[in-house]
Amino acid sequence: MITLFGATGYTGRKIAAELERRGLPFRIAGRSRERLTELSNSLPSRPAWIVADAQKNETLPPLFKDTRLLINCAGPFTDLGEKVAQMASFAGVHYLDTTNELAFVYRLQTYHKMAVTNHSFLLPACAFEIALSDVIIAKLLQETSAQHVYVVYHTPDTKISKGTRLSALRSLTTSWIGFQDGSWNGMVPAGKSSQFQFPSGVQTAIQIPSAEVFSVPWRHPVRSVEVWMTVSRSWGFWGPVVLPYFARFMRSIFGKWVYTLISRHDPLPVEDAESPFEILIGVQEQQEQDWRQALVSGKGPYTLTAKIAGYAASRVLGNTNLPNGLITPSVLFSYGEFIEEMQANGIQFTF
Ligand SMILES: NC(=O)c1ccc[n+]([C@@H]2O[C@H](COP(=O)([O-])OP(=O)(O)OC[C@H]3O[C@@H](n4cnc5c(N)ncnc54)[C@H](OP(=O)(O)O)[C@@H]3O)[C@@H](O)[C@H]2O)c1
Protein backbone atom coordinates (compact mmCIF):
# COMPACT_ATOMS: atom_id res chain seq x y z
CA MET A 1 0.00 0.00 0.00
CA ILE A 2 1.19 3.53 -0.80
CA THR A 3 0.25 6.39 1.53
CA LEU A 4 0.27 9.83 -0.09
CA PHE A 5 0.72 12.56 2.55
CA GLY A 6 -0.02 16.17 1.56
CA ALA A 7 -2.36 14.69 -1.06
CA THR A 8 -4.67 17.72 -1.15
CA GLY A 9 -2.01 20.18 -2.37
CA TYR A 10 -1.23 21.04 -5.99
CA THR A 11 1.47 18.38 -6.41
CA GLY A 12 -0.27 15.83 -4.18
CA ARG A 13 -3.38 15.90 -6.39
CA LYS A 14 -1.29 15.33 -9.49
CA ILE A 15 0.46 12.37 -7.85
CA ALA A 16 -2.89 10.93 -6.72
CA ALA A 17 -4.11 11.09 -10.33
CA GLU A 18 -0.90 9.41 -11.53
CA LEU A 19 -1.15 6.57 -8.96
CA GLU A 20 -4.76 6.13 -10.04
CA ARG A 21 -3.74 6.03 -13.73
CA ARG A 22 -1.16 3.34 -12.95
CA GLY A 23 -3.71 1.31 -10.98
CA LEU A 24 -1.47 1.26 -7.88
CA PRO A 25 -3.06 0.65 -4.43
CA PHE A 26 -2.91 3.88 -2.42
CA ARG A 27 -4.61 5.92 0.26
CA ILE A 28 -4.48 9.66 0.78
CA ALA A 29 -3.56 11.66 3.89
CA GLY A 30 -3.57 15.31 4.91
CA ARG A 31 -4.63 17.72 7.61
CA SER A 32 -8.14 18.57 6.36
CA ARG A 33 -10.94 16.00 6.55
CA GLU A 34 -13.07 18.08 4.15
CA ARG A 35 -10.38 18.37 1.47
CA LEU A 36 -9.54 14.65 1.79
CA THR A 37 -13.20 13.63 1.39
CA GLU A 38 -13.59 15.90 -1.62
CA LEU A 39 -10.37 14.52 -3.20
CA SER A 40 -11.31 10.89 -2.50
CA ASN A 41 -14.76 11.39 -4.05
CA SER A 42 -13.16 12.89 -7.16
CA LEU A 43 -10.97 9.81 -7.79
CA PRO A 44 -12.36 6.67 -9.49
CA SER A 45 -10.95 4.24 -6.85
CA ARG A 46 -12.32 6.37 -3.94
CA PRO A 47 -9.13 5.86 -1.88
CA ALA A 48 -9.34 5.65 1.92
CA TRP A 49 -8.02 8.70 3.76
CA ILE A 50 -6.17 9.47 7.00
CA VAL A 51 -6.26 12.80 8.82
CA ALA A 52 -2.74 13.69 10.00
CA ASP A 53 -1.06 17.01 10.71
CA ALA A 54 2.73 17.28 10.33
CA GLN A 55 2.77 19.75 13.24
CA LYS A 56 0.95 17.33 15.58
CA ASN A 57 3.22 14.33 16.14
CA GLU A 58 0.51 12.28 17.86
CA THR A 59 -1.52 12.24 14.60
CA LEU A 60 1.31 10.75 12.49
CA PRO A 61 1.60 7.01 13.47
CA PRO A 62 -1.40 5.87 11.32
CA LEU A 63 0.50 7.08 8.24
CA PHE A 64 2.93 4.17 8.61
CA LYS A 65 0.55 1.32 9.45
CA ASP A 66 0.40 -1.19 6.55
CA THR A 67 2.35 1.28 4.38
CA ARG A 68 5.17 0.08 2.13
CA LEU A 69 5.93 3.50 0.61
CA LEU A 70 5.09 6.90 2.06
CA ILE A 71 5.08 9.69 -0.54
CA ASN A 72 5.37 13.05 1.21
CA CYS A 73 4.15 16.27 -0.47
CA ALA A 74 3.49 18.25 2.72
CA GLY A 75 5.91 21.17 2.57
CA PRO A 76 7.83 23.31 3.37
CA PHE A 77 9.84 20.27 4.38
CA THR A 78 12.27 22.31 6.49
CA ASP A 79 9.34 22.91 8.86
CA LEU A 80 7.16 19.84 8.31
CA GLY A 81 9.26 17.02 6.87
CA GLU A 82 11.82 15.82 9.39
CA LYS A 83 9.50 14.09 11.88
CA VAL A 84 7.70 12.30 9.03
CA ALA A 85 10.98 11.04 7.53
CA GLN A 86 12.30 10.03 10.97
CA MET A 87 9.13 8.09 11.84
CA ALA A 88 9.16 6.37 8.42
CA SER A 89 12.71 5.09 8.92
CA PHE A 90 11.88 4.07 12.49
CA ALA A 91 8.87 2.08 11.23
CA GLY A 92 10.86 0.53 8.34
CA VAL A 93 8.63 2.25 5.75
CA HIS A 94 10.16 3.44 2.47
CA TYR A 95 10.01 7.26 2.21
CA LEU A 96 9.98 9.50 -0.87
CA ASP A 97 9.40 13.26 -1.10
CA THR A 98 9.29 16.09 -3.63
CA THR A 99 11.42 18.64 -1.82
CA ASN A 100 14.28 20.73 -3.10
CA GLU A 101 15.15 22.27 0.28
CA LEU A 102 18.85 21.59 0.64
CA ALA A 103 19.16 21.99 4.43
CA PHE A 104 16.32 19.52 4.96
CA VAL A 105 17.90 16.93 2.63
CA TYR A 106 21.26 17.43 4.38
CA ARG A 107 19.59 16.79 7.78
CA LEU A 108 18.29 13.40 6.64
CA GLN A 109 21.83 11.95 7.00
CA THR A 110 20.87 11.64 10.68
CA TYR A 111 18.39 8.85 9.84
CA HIS A 112 20.53 6.97 7.31
CA LYS A 113 21.68 4.29 9.76
CA MET A 114 18.21 3.81 11.20
CA ALA A 115 16.81 3.25 7.70
CA VAL A 116 19.60 0.77 6.89
CA THR A 117 18.90 -1.15 10.12
CA ASN A 118 15.18 -1.25 9.38
CA HIS A 119 15.68 -2.21 5.68
CA SER A 120 13.97 0.87 4.30
CA PHE A 121 15.12 3.76 2.14
CA LEU A 122 14.84 7.52 2.45
CA LEU A 123 14.55 9.13 -0.97
CA PRO A 124 14.23 12.90 -0.62
CA ALA A 125 14.23 15.32 -3.58
CA CYS A 126 12.56 12.99 -6.04
CA ALA A 127 10.97 15.92 -7.90
CA PHE A 128 11.48 16.47 -11.65
CA GLU A 129 14.65 18.57 -11.62
CA ILE A 130 16.65 16.57 -9.07
CA ALA A 131 15.52 13.18 -10.40
CA LEU A 132 16.54 14.11 -13.95
CA SER A 133 19.84 15.73 -12.97
CA ASP A 134 20.72 12.91 -10.52
CA VAL A 135 20.19 10.19 -13.13
CA ILE A 136 22.22 12.04 -15.79
CA ILE A 137 25.02 12.96 -13.37
CA ALA A 138 25.26 9.31 -12.25
CA LYS A 139 25.54 8.25 -15.90
CA LEU A 140 28.22 10.88 -16.73
CA LEU A 141 30.22 10.04 -13.62
CA GLN A 142 30.05 6.34 -14.44
CA GLU A 143 31.62 7.07 -17.83
CA THR A 144 34.34 9.47 -16.61
CA SER A 145 36.29 10.04 -13.42
CA ALA A 146 35.07 13.64 -13.25
CA GLN A 147 35.44 15.56 -10.00
CA HIS A 148 33.59 18.79 -10.70
CA VAL A 149 29.87 18.98 -11.40
CA TYR A 150 27.54 21.82 -12.28
CA VAL A 151 23.83 21.95 -12.98
CA VAL A 152 21.97 24.94 -14.46
CA TYR A 153 18.18 25.21 -14.38
CA HIS A 154 16.51 27.28 -17.05
CA THR A 155 12.78 27.57 -16.35
CA PRO A 156 11.58 30.65 -18.24
CA ASP A 157 7.95 31.69 -17.58
CA THR A 158 7.25 28.89 -15.09
CA LYS A 159 4.47 29.80 -12.67
CA ILE A 160 5.07 28.23 -9.29
CA SER A 161 2.65 26.93 -6.66
CA LYS A 162 2.30 28.52 -3.25
CA GLY A 163 4.09 25.47 -1.79
CA THR A 164 7.10 25.98 -4.09
CA ARG A 165 7.24 29.69 -3.24
CA LEU A 166 7.29 28.96 0.51
CA SER A 167 9.85 26.18 0.05
CA ALA A 168 12.13 28.47 -1.97
CA LEU A 169 11.96 31.08 0.80
CA ARG A 170 12.70 28.49 3.50
CA SER A 171 15.61 27.22 1.46
CA LEU A 172 17.04 30.72 1.01
CA THR A 173 16.74 31.20 4.79
CA THR A 174 18.23 27.89 5.91
CA SER A 175 20.28 26.26 3.14
CA TRP A 176 23.61 28.03 3.55
CA ILE A 177 25.58 25.04 2.37
CA GLY A 178 28.13 24.69 -0.44
CA PHE A 179 30.36 21.80 -1.58
CA GLN A 180 33.90 22.83 -2.52
CA ASP A 181 37.30 21.09 -2.28
CA GLY A 182 35.69 17.82 -1.29
CA SER A 183 33.72 19.00 1.74
CA TRP A 184 30.51 20.73 2.71
CA ASN A 185 31.00 24.21 4.07
CA GLY A 186 28.95 27.29 4.90
CA MET A 187 27.93 29.43 1.92
CA VAL A 188 25.46 32.32 1.74
CA PRO A 189 23.07 31.54 -1.15
CA ALA A 190 22.79 33.51 -4.39
CA GLY A 191 26.12 35.29 -3.88
CA LYS A 192 27.56 34.59 -7.36
CA SER A 193 26.43 34.99 -10.96
CA SER A 194 27.84 33.50 -14.15
CA GLN A 195 26.95 32.86 -17.79
CA PHE A 196 26.18 29.57 -19.52
CA GLN A 197 25.76 28.62 -23.15
CA PHE A 198 22.35 27.10 -23.91
CA PRO A 199 21.19 26.11 -27.43
CA SER A 200 18.93 29.19 -27.36
CA GLY A 201 21.87 31.49 -26.50
CA VAL A 202 23.92 32.64 -23.53
CA GLN A 203 21.98 32.78 -20.25
CA THR A 204 22.90 34.59 -17.04
CA ALA A 205 22.48 32.54 -13.86
CA ILE A 206 22.86 32.91 -10.10
CA GLN A 207 24.12 30.18 -7.79
CA ILE A 208 21.35 28.58 -5.72
CA PRO A 209 21.09 26.07 -2.88
CA SER A 210 19.71 22.87 -4.42
CA ALA A 211 19.62 19.24 -3.28
CA GLU A 212 22.47 18.14 -5.61
CA VAL A 213 24.91 20.03 -3.36
CA PHE A 214 24.25 17.25 -0.87
CA SER A 215 23.09 14.31 -2.97
CA VAL A 216 25.91 14.22 -5.56
CA PRO A 217 28.79 14.09 -3.02
CA TRP A 218 26.73 11.73 -0.85
CA ARG A 219 26.88 9.22 -3.72
CA HIS A 220 29.99 10.07 -5.75
CA PRO A 221 33.60 10.98 -4.83
CA VAL A 222 33.55 14.48 -6.38
CA ARG A 223 35.41 17.65 -5.36
CA SER A 224 32.84 20.36 -6.16
CA VAL A 225 29.16 20.77 -6.99
CA GLU A 226 27.54 24.01 -8.10
CA VAL A 227 23.88 24.56 -8.95
CA TRP A 228 22.66 27.61 -10.83
CA MET A 229 19.35 29.07 -11.95
CA THR A 230 19.00 31.36 -14.95
CA VAL A 231 17.72 34.88 -14.33
CA SER A 232 17.42 38.09 -16.36
CA ARG A 233 20.64 39.99 -17.03
CA SER A 234 19.69 42.69 -14.52
CA TRP A 235 19.02 40.05 -11.82
CA GLY A 236 22.37 38.53 -12.71
CA PHE A 237 23.87 41.86 -11.64
CA TRP A 238 21.60 42.80 -8.72
CA GLY A 239 20.86 39.27 -7.38
CA PRO A 240 24.32 38.62 -5.85
CA VAL A 241 24.22 42.14 -4.33
CA VAL A 242 20.70 42.00 -2.89
CA LEU A 243 19.83 38.31 -2.28
CA PRO A 244 22.54 37.48 0.31
CA TYR A 245 21.25 40.44 2.39
CA PHE A 246 17.67 39.31 1.82
CA ALA A 247 18.66 35.79 3.00
CA ARG A 248 20.20 37.33 6.14
CA PHE A 249 17.07 39.42 6.68
CA MET A 250 14.91 36.29 6.33
CA ARG A 251 16.91 34.71 9.16
CA SER A 252 16.04 37.59 11.47
CA ILE A 253 12.88 37.88 13.55
CA PHE A 254 11.41 40.15 10.82
CA GLY A 255 11.81 37.38 8.25
CA LYS A 256 8.95 35.52 9.93
CA TRP A 257 6.59 38.41 9.05
CA VAL A 258 7.53 38.22 5.36
CA TYR A 259 7.02 34.48 5.44
CA THR A 260 3.60 34.81 7.12
CA LEU A 261 2.52 37.50 4.63
CA ILE A 262 3.51 35.30 1.69
CA SER A 263 1.83 32.21 3.15
CA ARG A 264 -1.45 34.14 3.33
CA HIS A 265 -1.24 35.12 -0.31
CA ASP A 266 -2.44 32.48 -2.77
CA PRO A 267 -0.66 32.85 -6.11
CA LEU A 268 -2.57 32.42 -9.34
CA PRO A 269 -3.36 28.82 -10.25
CA VAL A 270 -0.34 27.21 -11.87
CA GLU A 271 -0.57 26.52 -15.59
CA ASP A 272 1.88 23.70 -15.65
CA ALA A 273 1.47 21.73 -18.85
CA GLU A 274 3.11 24.20 -21.23
CA SER A 275 5.87 25.49 -18.90
CA PRO A 276 9.17 24.67 -20.62
CA PHE A 277 12.38 23.82 -18.80
CA GLU A 278 15.97 23.00 -19.69
CA ILE A 279 18.61 21.48 -17.44
CA LEU A 280 22.24 21.85 -18.44
CA ILE A 281 24.58 19.44 -16.69
CA GLY A 282 28.37 19.57 -16.90
CA VAL A 283 31.09 17.34 -15.46
CA GLN A 284 34.81 18.00 -15.62
CA GLU A 285 37.73 15.72 -14.71
CA GLN A 286 40.23 18.44 -13.87
CA GLN A 287 40.24 22.20 -13.84
CA GLU A 288 41.20 23.77 -17.19
CA GLN A 289 39.85 20.71 -19.05
CA ASP A 290 36.72 20.83 -21.21
CA TRP A 291 33.37 20.16 -19.57
CA ARG A 292 31.43 17.13 -20.73
CA GLN A 293 27.83 18.29 -20.99
CA ALA A 294 24.28 16.97 -21.28
CA LEU A 295 21.06 18.89 -21.86
CA VAL A 296 17.62 17.75 -20.69
CA SER A 297 14.58 19.61 -21.99
CA GLY A 298 10.85 19.24 -21.63
CA LYS A 299 7.62 20.78 -20.40
CA GLY A 300 5.34 20.61 -17.36
CA PRO A 301 7.54 20.39 -14.24
CA TYR A 302 4.75 19.56 -11.76
CA THR A 303 3.09 16.99 -14.03
CA LEU A 304 6.50 15.41 -14.57
CA THR A 305 7.16 15.33 -10.82
CA ALA A 306 3.92 13.33 -10.46
CA LYS A 307 4.96 10.96 -13.28
CA ILE A 308 8.35 10.40 -11.60
CA ALA A 309 6.71 9.70 -8.21
CA GLY A 310 4.36 7.24 -9.94
CA TYR A 311 7.29 5.54 -11.67
CA ALA A 312 9.16 5.28 -8.33
CA ALA A 313 6.05 3.85 -6.65
CA SER A 314 5.68 1.18 -9.33
CA ARG A 315 9.33 0.16 -8.84
CA VAL A 316 8.81 -0.14 -5.08
CA LEU A 317 5.63 -2.21 -5.29
CA GLY A 318 6.98 -4.44 -8.04
CA ASN A 319 10.36 -5.17 -6.46
CA THR A 320 11.49 -7.11 -3.38
CA ASN A 321 15.18 -6.25 -3.75
CA LEU A 322 15.20 -2.55 -2.81
CA PRO A 323 18.05 -0.31 -1.60
CA ASN A 324 18.38 0.74 2.05
CA GLY A 325 19.34 3.98 3.77
CA LEU A 326 19.49 7.53 2.42
CA ILE A 327 19.50 7.26 -1.37
CA THR A 328 19.16 9.42 -4.48
CA PRO A 329 16.77 8.80 -7.42
CA SER A 330 19.38 7.08 -9.62
CA VAL A 331 19.85 4.38 -6.95
CA LEU A 332 16.21 3.30 -7.16
CA PHE A 333 15.70 3.83 -10.88
CA SER A 334 16.95 1.67 -13.69
CA TYR A 335 18.72 4.05 -16.12
CA GLY A 336 17.41 2.70 -19.45
CA GLU A 337 13.85 2.20 -18.19
CA PHE A 338 13.74 5.69 -16.61
CA ILE A 339 15.03 7.40 -19.77
CA GLU A 340 12.42 5.53 -21.86
CA GLU A 341 9.70 6.52 -19.40
CA MET A 342 10.79 10.18 -19.59
CA GLN A 343 11.05 10.14 -23.39
CA ALA A 344 7.49 8.78 -23.51
CA ASN A 345 6.55 11.95 -21.59
CA GLY A 346 8.20 14.25 -24.12
CA ILE A 347 11.54 14.74 -22.34
CA GLN A 348 14.57 15.06 -24.63
CA PHE A 349 18.15 14.18 -23.72
CA THR A 350 21.14 15.51 -25.66
CA PHE A 351 24.65 14.33 -24.82
N1 LIG B 1 11.29 20.54 -6.42
C1 LIG B 1 10.24 20.52 -7.21
O1 LIG B 1 10.32 20.55 -8.40
C2 LIG B 1 8.89 20.39 -6.59
C3 LIG B 1 7.80 20.06 -7.40
C4 LIG B 1 6.57 19.94 -6.78
C5 LIG B 1 6.44 20.15 -5.41
N2 LIG B 1 7.51 20.48 -4.68
C6 LIG B 1 7.41 20.70 -3.23
O2 LIG B 1 6.36 19.94 -2.68
C7 LIG B 1 5.68 20.69 -1.68
C8 LIG B 1 4.20 20.77 -2.03
O3 LIG B 1 4.07 21.54 -3.19
P1 LIG B 1 2.64 21.93 -3.75
O4 LIG B 1 2.86 22.51 -5.07
O5 LIG B 1 1.74 20.74 -3.66
O6 LIG B 1 2.18 23.03 -2.68
P2 LIG B 1 0.76 23.27 -2.03
O7 LIG B 1 -0.29 23.19 -3.07
O8 LIG B 1 0.86 24.52 -1.23
O9 LIG B 1 0.56 22.03 -1.04
C9 LIG B 1 1.14 21.96 0.23
C10 LIG B 1 0.64 20.70 0.89
O10 LIG B 1 1.16 20.62 2.22
C11 LIG B 1 0.08 20.37 3.12
N3 LIG B 1 0.35 20.85 4.45
C12 LIG B 1 0.70 22.10 4.84
N4 LIG B 1 0.85 22.13 6.20
C13 LIG B 1 0.59 20.88 6.63
C14 LIG B 1 0.57 20.28 7.91
N5 LIG B 1 0.86 20.98 9.02
N6 LIG B 1 0.27 18.97 8.01
C15 LIG B 1 -0.02 18.25 6.90
N7 LIG B 1 -0.05 18.76 5.67
C16 LIG B 1 0.27 20.07 5.54
C17 LIG B 1 -1.08 21.12 2.49
O11 LIG B 1 -2.30 20.69 3.05
P3 LIG B 1 -3.68 21.49 2.77
O12 LIG B 1 -4.15 21.01 1.42
O13 LIG B 1 -4.54 21.06 3.89
O14 LIG B 1 -3.34 22.96 2.77
C18 LIG B 1 -0.89 20.70 1.04
O15 LIG B 1 -1.38 19.41 0.84
C19 LIG B 1 6.36 22.05 -1.62
O16 LIG B 1 7.26 22.06 -0.54
C20 LIG B 1 7.09 22.16 -2.94
O17 LIG B 1 8.26 22.93 -2.86
C21 LIG B 1 8.74 20.59 -5.24
UniProtKB/TrEMBL annotation:
Saccharopine dehydrogenase NADP binding domain segment(s): 3-102
Record Gene3D superfamilies: NAD(P)-binding Rossmann-like Domain
Pfam families: Sacchrp_dh_NADP
InterPro entries: NAD(P)-bd_dom_sf (IPR036291), Sacchrp_dh_NADP-bd (IPR005097)
Protein name in UniProt: Saccharopine dehydrogenase family protein
Natural source organism: Anaerolinea thermophila (strain DSM 14523 / JCM 11388 / NBRC 100420 / UNI-1)
